[in-house]
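Components:
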Amino acid sequence: MKDENQGTEQRIKDAAKGLFQKKGFAATKTREIAEASETNLALVNYYFRTKKQLFDAIMLETLNELLSGVVNIYSNEETTFEEKINAFVNHYMDLFSENQNLPAFIMNSVRENPKEYLTQFGLLGKIQDSTFAKQFQEKLEKGEIAQVNPINFIVNLIALTVFPFITQPIVCETTGINKELYYQMIEDRRRLIPLWIETMLRIT
Amino acid sequence: MKDENQGTEQRIKDAAKGLFQKKGFAATKTREIAEASETNLALVNYYFRTKKQLFDAIMLETLNELLSGVVNIYSNEETTFEEKINAFVNHYMDLFSENQNLPAFIMNSVRENPKEYLTQFGLLGKIQDSTFAKQFQEKLEKGEIAQVNPINFIVNLIALTVFPFITQPIVCETTGINKELYYQMIEDRRRLIPLWIETMLRIT
DNA sequence: ATTCAATTTAAACATTCGTTTAATATTAGA
DNA sequence: TCTAATATTAAACGAATGTTTAAATTGAAT
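Structure:
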C-alpha cells in the first residue's frame, strides 16, 4: 500500500479536473485523461470505474470547497455585515484568480444537473440561518438598508464578483487587452464591489 | 425548388439550435438533431456538410442577432446616455426571457473559441466609436460621473443584466422557488439596474 | 411523357469512445 | 522466500458517432 497508489489516483484526478474544467464532460475523452495524467486508459477505470464517477467525484470535491467557503464566511459571528461582503469578494477573487476556468465550469455543470449536485448540501438552510442573514435582517429593521429582495442582493454580489472571470476570454479577445493586464485591472474590484453593493442596498 | 427545401433546412437548423443551446456542441449528437427535426441522419449532412459547419452557421446567426442589438442601441443618436442603459437592459431581458438558454450558450461557445466567433464582427471599433462612448466621455468631462474604468462599467452592466438568467436553475433548485416566480421576480431589475448603474458611476 | 437536377432515404463505413479482459509486474505480510 | 493482494499494462470488445454512398423519389422544365 505504498503511496504510489494515491499518487496515481491523485494524478488522474488532477488531470481530469483540469480537462473537465476547460472543456466540460462530453468534450473530455478518457484517453485524454489517461495521457494528461501520464497513466493509461485502464488505470482511469481501475480507480474510478467510469468517466461519470470520476467526474462526479471531482464535482463533489469542487463544490464542497466552494460552498464551505461561503458558509464559513456567512456564519462567522465575529465579523460585521460589511466585513462579510469584503471577505466574500476577496475569497472568491483569490480562488478564481488561481483557477480561472472554475466559474464557468461550476455554472455549466450545476446548470446541467442542479438536482444532482446541489440538493445534498443543505445550502439554503445554512445560508438562511447564517449570521449574515441575521445581520441583513437587522439592518433592514433599523432602516439602514432599503426593502430589497434578498435574492436580488445575493445575485448581484455573486454577479459582480464572478462575472469578470467568465467574460475574461471574450473581453480580452475583443479589446486586445492581454490576460495579465485584465486580471490586474479587475483587482480594483475587491475595493469597489463592497462600495457598489452597499450603495445598491440603499436603492428601492 | 419548392419551399420544402427551405422548410427542411430550416427545420434542421431550428432543432439543432435548441439542442446546441441546451447541451453544447459535444453533447449534441447528429442523430438527435435528425430526430428532433423529424428528418434523417443523411439530410443533416446534405444541407450542412458537417456538424461543425451546422454549429457555426447557428452560432454566427445567433451572435449577429445579439451583437447587432448592442450596436443599434449604442449608436442611436436620438437617445440619451440614460435611455441607452434602459434600452440595453430591456432589450436583453426581453431576448433572454424568450430564450433562456441563450446566455450560457453564448458564454460557453465564445469562451471555447473567442477568436473564431468574435474577431470578424469588428465589435470593438463599433462600440468605441458609438454615440454611447461619446456620451460616456462627455459625462466624464462634465464631472457628472466619476473616473471609472469603462471596462468595469460595461462588465457591470452586462453582469447585472445577464447573470440572473445564467443562475436561474441554481437559484430555483436551492431555494425551491419555481421558474415563473423567479422570472417574475427579476422583472423588477429592468427598473433597478439603471438606477444601480447610475449610482455606481458616481463611486471612485 | 421524358428528362434531369434536387431531394430524400436506408444502409454501410470508418473512427472514436467508454469499458473490460486477461496477463504481467509490484508490493507487503507470513 | 513464498504468497496473496494490489497495481499496471496491452489488447480487444462492443456500442456510438460523424460521415458517405448509392439507390429511390420528387418536381419542374422541355
